[in-house]
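User: What would this chain look like folded?
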Amino acid sequence: MRLLVGLGNPGPKHRDNRHNIGFMAADEIVRRYNLSAPRSRFQSEAFEGTIDGEKVLLLKPITFMNESGQAVGEAARFFKLAPEDIIVLHDEIDLAAGKVRVKRGGGHAGHNGLRSIHSHLGSPDYVRVRLGIGHPGDKDKVHGHVLSDFSRDDRKWVEPELDAVAQALPALLDGRDSDFMSQVAMAVQQATGKGRTPKAPSDAQPADPKSQQSGTSTEPAPDKQTALGAALGRAMSKIRGG
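Assistant: Here's the prediction, encoded as structure tokens.
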């Protein structure tokens, strides 16, 4: 059995906050895999079902972000789960918006939800799906940034990212972290049009750098070629005549 946990704050006031992207991902997973109707359990909205043949329990803690560990710890103890069987989806300000990274173990990097989970599990060895929301650039603006709603422009990457996270989840459950991240990255790139520049064919000849910089061709201009030919012709005529 796997325990999936989406982090966020309960209530309509926080529904569209950047801090709630973990809840949003959880909702998409519930929808895609047709998990059960929510039950009030483990201080959470709890959903059950199977994903790719594996039994899962998905939690959306209602304890508020800073006490998320209460819900996670209670469920983990009840089912006697190892930390490695727990996957937490959460917002990450130290990742650019639209980026997703998987991390197994390690520190909480100041994230209060993770700090609480560390404390209640007594171990950092659970899996985190870090959903980048970008940093505002000033530490004094972090609080307002995470508790503000995603903008209309943000939705261009948020929605395809959440869809891809849910779709690629079987790869993560199978331990194929790189495949999971690649699938999500590709989906976001396709949706936003921000991908890698295609490489030139291998048989293509590189252009002359000076030509690229000046914007001029390396070939002489047609009129210069004509003038040069005419001059040579006149010179040859004089030589023959002499």
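DSSP finds nine helices and seven strands in the chain. If you want, I can go into more detail on any region.
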